[in-house]
Amino acid sequence: MPEGYRKIMAEEKNSILQKLDGLEARYEEVSTLITDPEVIADQSRYVKLTKEYKELGDIMDARKRYVACLNAVKESKDIIVNESDPDMKAMAREELQENEELQPKLEEEIKMLLVPKDPEDAKNVQMEIRAGTGGDEAALFAGDLFNMYRRFCDSKGWTVSVTSFNEGAAGGYKEIDFAVSGDNVYGTLKYESGVHRVQRVPATETQGRMHTSAATVAVLPEAEKFEVHIDESKIKWDTFRSSGAGGQNVNKVSSGVRLRYPWKNSETGEEEEILIECTETRDQPKNKERALSRLYTFVYDREHAKYVGDIQNRRKSLVSTGDRSAKIRTYNYPQGRVTDHRIGYTIHDLQGFMNGNIQDMIDHLTVAENAEKLKESEL
Torsions phi, psi of 187, nearest 5? Predict the structure, then answer.
C-alpha cells in the first residue's frame, strides 16, 4: 500500500475517532441529566433527552466495536512482524484479514449513525390526497391510493383517522384528508408527497383505451402546540398617574402602567418595540397584569399568523398542481409495474404494491436520501 494512501486512511480514522470522542462527552453529560429530578419534572425536556440518550448510545456501541477493530488490526500486525512462531503468525494473519474486512463496514455504519436526523421524523402526520387531471378516473385512483396507504398503515400497527372527504361521482374521492399516528410516521411517509400518475384502462372505458390520470399526495408533519415565548426580564415598566373619572385616587396615585418590550419580528428579522399602556383600574398590580396579558395576546397574534402561513405554504409546495408532468411515481397497470422517477427504481408487483406492500420502495428512497445527506455532511 502506498505511503500517501496509508496517511489518508489514518487521517480518516482519526477524524472519525475525534468526532466520536466529542460525542462521548455529550453522552456522559446526557446520562447524568436524565437522572436529575429537575429534568425529570420537566417532561418535555426529559423526553427529548432520553431520545438523544438512545441515539448516542447506538453511536457509542458502534464506537466501542470500531476501537476494538482498530486495536485488533494493530495487534495482528505487531504479531506478524515480531512473532517467530509460525502458528501464531498464521492466526494473526487470519485475524488481520477479518478485521480489515470489518473496518470499512463499521466506518460506514458510523457515518450513517452520524447523519443528522430530521427532528420531524418521529411526528404523526396529516395526509391529503386530491384527484388531479383525469376526471372520474382520477377520483377512482385517489381512492385506490387511500386504500393502499390504509393497508400499509394497518401493517405497521398505525392508526388512521379520516378527517374529511368528498366522494367522486363514479366512486373514489375527489379529495380525502386523514391523520396517521404511530411510531416514526413522518420519517416513513414523507417520501409520498407529490404527483402520482396512473396508466390503465378505466372501468368506465367502453372502447378499451388506456387513460393517464393523476392524483396529488401531501404529507404534513403534525404541528406542535403553538406557544408564545416572552422573556419577561426584558420588559421595561413605567408607572404614571392616570387621568379621567375615578375620584381623588386617580391623580394622586401612579396606578397607570406602561410596558415596552423588544420583540424580534421573525419574518423581517428586525427588532420592534411593543408599547402597551393600561389605566383600566385604580389598582396598579391589576393594570400591570392586564398589560402583560395584552403583550402575550399581541405577540401570539403576530407569530400565529406566520405559523399558519408557513403551514399553508408548505401544503402548497407539496400538493403541486396535479399536473401529470410533475409526477414522482407512475403506476402502469398493463405492465404491472410501479416506477419512482426520483430514484429510477421499479417494482414489478403492482398488485402487491396497491395492497399496501410499499415498504421496499420507501427503503430505497430512504437509502437515496441518506446517501445525499452523507455527501453534504462533513465527518
Answer: -60, -25
Q: What's the grid cell of residue 112?
A: 450513517
Q: 252 pLDDT band (50/70/90 cuts)?
A: low
Give ∠ CA 365-370-375 in degrees, rounded to 5: 130
pLDDT digits (tens, 9 = 90+) for 151-208: 999 999 999 998 888 999 889 999 999 989 998 899 999 999 989 999 998 876 667 7
* pLDDT at residue number 156: 96
Q: What is the domain partition of the chain in residue ranges? A: 3-114, 125-225+321-376, 232-314
Residue 126: predicted pLDDT: 86
Would you say the C-alpha torsion 366, 371, 372, 376 has a positive or negative sign? positive
DSSP H/E element including 100: helix 86-114
188 Cβ neighbours under 8 A, 6+ residues apart: 156, 362
Q: Contact, 337 vs 348, CB < 8 A?
A: yes
Q: In the sheet where 236-240 sits, what is the strand order? A: 236-240, 256-264, 271-278
Residues 129/363/16/98 CA torsion (nearest 10 deg): 180
What is residue 34's three-state secondary structure? coil
SS3 48: helix
CA distance 336 to 350: 5
Model pTM score: 0.62
pLDDT tens-place string over residues 298-313: 887 777 677 666 666 6
Residue 214 exposed, middle or buried by CB count within 10 Å (0-12, 13-18, 19+) = buried
For the domain bounded by 232-314, which CATH number is listed?
3.30.160.20
Distance between CA atoms of residues 76 and 90, nearest Å: 10
Tell me the mean pLDDT in the region 32-60.
87
Report the CATH architecture of 125-225+321-376: 2-Layer Sandwich (3.30)
Position 45 confidence tier, pLDDT thresholds 50, 70, 90: confident
Lowest-confidence region among 10-19, 160-169, 233-242, 314-323: 314-323
Residue with cell 419580528: 265
Q: Tell me the sheet residues that pair with 162.
A: 178
